[in-house]
């Protein structure tokens, strides 16, 4: 009983001691700075994730790298096989073309074999030249090309034709070679079996294959074209792949070895080595490769050797990211504390601009609402600024209205109608035309001050103005045909007539023949340009520059034209275009090709859309 009682008393004491230690640990942690707590927490979680990923990565890394290395080698073999197949396909096509389609085969079969005749010498010379030219065309791929003709009518006499640059090996008899035996037996194949047979000193390859094309019983003759491939072509194709760890073999359709890498086949371990194949679709050949497993393992180990460095780098990056995240979490709290201290000192203009709706953002919004009643002056200033902007916009609209109302005399339009009627009654057609033209001119000008019209309507108004000026300038040449194709595009009303009016006032002041040309052209799919071009007296370069400078700042002035008191003026037009469409649309003045002035008007192909065009 005594021992049990002692244990019962000891148990609460132990529990209290554990609670005190836990409280001490909690206080030790929670009394740290907020940044320290956040940084340690993120770092611990990040390191657990990183090393967990490293464990999984370590487990599956070898298999992934092995598969990647095998795929890389297989892709290299496939590409090399494709290149070799294309090379062989090109040679085969050219051999067929030389013998079957170019006429050389027929002529070779008809070559004279009579000894000592001039015809035989001529035919032999031609055959040697033709075969030599074909061989030289593929000197790096072909070692020898020759043709054997067998004449049944002449006692099966055989004549061998070959390039004069080739030197036969004296002790070699072509009748003992496999291609000849197949030819005599009538079983010649285009691809011969791999062979070490040679006929000329120029046949340097130890082992290669022949390409043969045969014809039988052609007017009592048999013939065969024999092409010996350069075996170096195969070794060159696989030179960069063949190593001590990679054994390569090129086999024909029958499975016979055409080429083998220097590695001995005794080194091939069919159990451990990895076998790869790649088929040559054009020639029917196949590339067989045996790569040692140790080679793959060695490549994998090279990559795995840097794995510790990668883990260290990831750990450092993790620490850096943890630091950045900690700072990003702590920075808003510190910012809110600084703003509170400024508010305590009397700075009531501070605001907390929280980007997120988290707890810190909620605290910041509460801080802003607390200061809201003391920042009424800021809101009032903002309202006043908005009213000022609205007033400026209304002032610009009023300015635009004043610009176009300069030419809005209703009473004059009515008077001109009366004059027109009187001229018709008294049979004075010239006065009638002038008064009607003036009436149409002012009728067009009376429209809505911000009207946007199609170019065709604006062009008709310009023609009315030109009809009026025709009485004063009867000899003036007018060309407006270049506007017809652009008639549906929008233009600010009363844009062209003021520019034309300027031309009459300043350009046509001499005593020579003048012309006025209006045409349009595309700039891009969104804008077009109208040219008002004359061959008048022109303008000095300095004045042109000054004029364009004034036009560039247009849109900020009062809007009244300064160039022509009786018209609207170029700056008036520029102001209205800029108010309507904004920059970069507007005018640009330049010298025309004939020495006059060319006013270019850049406009959009689509209007503002706030009113309908008069189509």
TrEMBL record:
Subcellular location: Cell membrane
Keywords recorded for this protein, A-Z: Cell membrane, Kinase, Membrane, Phosphoprotein, Transferase, Transmembrane, Transmembrane helix
Signal sequence range: none
GO cellular component entries: plasma membrane
Record membrane topology: Multi-pass membrane protein
InterPro entries, alphabetized: Bact_2-comp_sensor_kinase, HAMP_dom, HATPase_C_sf, HATPase_dom, Sig_transdc_His_kin_internal
UniProt-listed PROSITE patterns: HAMP (PS50885)
HAMP domain ranges (all copies): 327-379
Record flagged with keyword Membrane: yes
Pfam families in UniProt: HAMP, HATPase_c, His_kinase
GO MF annotations in UniProt: phosphorelay sensor kinase activity
Protein name according to UniProt: Histidine kinase
């Amino acid at each position: 009983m005594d021992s049990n009682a002692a244990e019962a008393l000891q148990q609460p004491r132990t529990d209290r001691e554990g609670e005190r230690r836990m409280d001490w640990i909690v206080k030790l942690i929670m009394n740290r700075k907020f940044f320290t707590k956040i940084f340690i927490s993120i770092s611990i979680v990040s390191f657990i994730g990183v090393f967990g990923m490293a464990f999984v990565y370590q487990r599956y890394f070898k298999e992934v790298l092995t598969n990647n290395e095998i795929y890389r080698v297989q892709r290299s073999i496939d590409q090399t096989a494709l290149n070799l197949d294309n090379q062989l396909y090109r040679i085969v096509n050219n051999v067929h073309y030389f013998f079957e389609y170019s006429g050389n085969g027929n002529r070779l079969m008809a070559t004279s074999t009579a000894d000592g005749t001039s015809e035989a010498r001529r035919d032999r010379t031609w055959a040697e030249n033709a075969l030599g030219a074909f061989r030289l065309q593929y000197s790096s791929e072909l070692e020898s090309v020759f043709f054997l003709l067998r004449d049944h009518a002449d006692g099966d006499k055989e004549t061998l034709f070959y390039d004069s640059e080739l030197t036969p090996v004296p002790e070699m008899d072509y009748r003992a070679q496999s291609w000849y035996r197949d030819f005599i037996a009538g079983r010649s194949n285009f691809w011969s079996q791999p062979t070490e047979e040679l006929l000329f000193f120029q046949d340097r390859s130890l082992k290669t294959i022949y390409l043969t094309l045969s014809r039988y019983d052609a007017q009592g003759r048999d013939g065969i074209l024999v092409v010996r491939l350069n075996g170096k072509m195969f070794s060159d194709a696989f030179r960069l792949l063949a190593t001590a760890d990679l054994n390569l073999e090129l086999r024909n359709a029958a499975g016979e070895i055409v080429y083998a890498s220097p590695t001995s086949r005794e080194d091939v371990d069919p159990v451990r080595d990895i076998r790869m194949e790649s088929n040559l679709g054009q020639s029917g050949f196949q590339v067989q490769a045996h790569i040692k497993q140790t080679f793959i393992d060695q490549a994998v180990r090279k990559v795995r050797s840097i794995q510790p460095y990668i883990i260290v780098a990831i750990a450092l990056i993790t620490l850096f990211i943890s630091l950045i995240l900690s700072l990003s979490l702590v920075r808003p709290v510190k910012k809110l504390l600084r703003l509170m201290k400024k508010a305590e000192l009397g700075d009531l203009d501070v605001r907390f601009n929280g980007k997120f709706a988290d707890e810190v953002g909620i605290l910041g919004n509460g801080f802003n609402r607390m200061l809201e009643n003391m920042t009424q002056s800021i809101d009032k200033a903002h309202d006043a600024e908005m009213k000022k902007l609205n007033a400026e916009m209304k002032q610009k609209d009023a300015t635009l209205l004043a610009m176009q109302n300069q030419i809005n005399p209703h009473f004059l339009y009515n008077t001109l109608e009366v004059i027109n009627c009187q001229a018709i009654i008294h049979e004075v057609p010239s006065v009638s035309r002038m008064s009607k033209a003036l009436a149409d001119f002012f009728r067009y000008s009376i429209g809505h001050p911000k009207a946007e019209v199609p170019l065709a309507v604006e062009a008709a108004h310009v023609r009315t103005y030109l009809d009026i000026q025709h009485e004063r300038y009867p000899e003036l040449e007018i060309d407006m045909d270049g506007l017809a194709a652009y008639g549906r595009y929008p233009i600010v009303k009363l844009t062209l007539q003021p520019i034309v009016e300027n031309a009459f006032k300043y350009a046509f002041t001499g005593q020579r023949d003048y012309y006025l040309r209006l045409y349009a052209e595309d700039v891009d799919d969104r804008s077009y340009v109208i040219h008002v071009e004359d061959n008048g007296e022109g303008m000095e370069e300095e004045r042109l520059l000054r004029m364009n400078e004034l036009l560039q700042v247009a849109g900020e002035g009062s809007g009244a034209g300064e160039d022509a008191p009786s018209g609207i003026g170029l700056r008036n037009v520029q102001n209205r275009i800029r108010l309507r469409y904004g920059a970069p649309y507007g005018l640009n003045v330049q010298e025309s090709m004939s020495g006059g002035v060319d006013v270019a008007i850049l406009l959009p192909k689509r209007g503002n859309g706030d009113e309908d065009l008069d189509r």
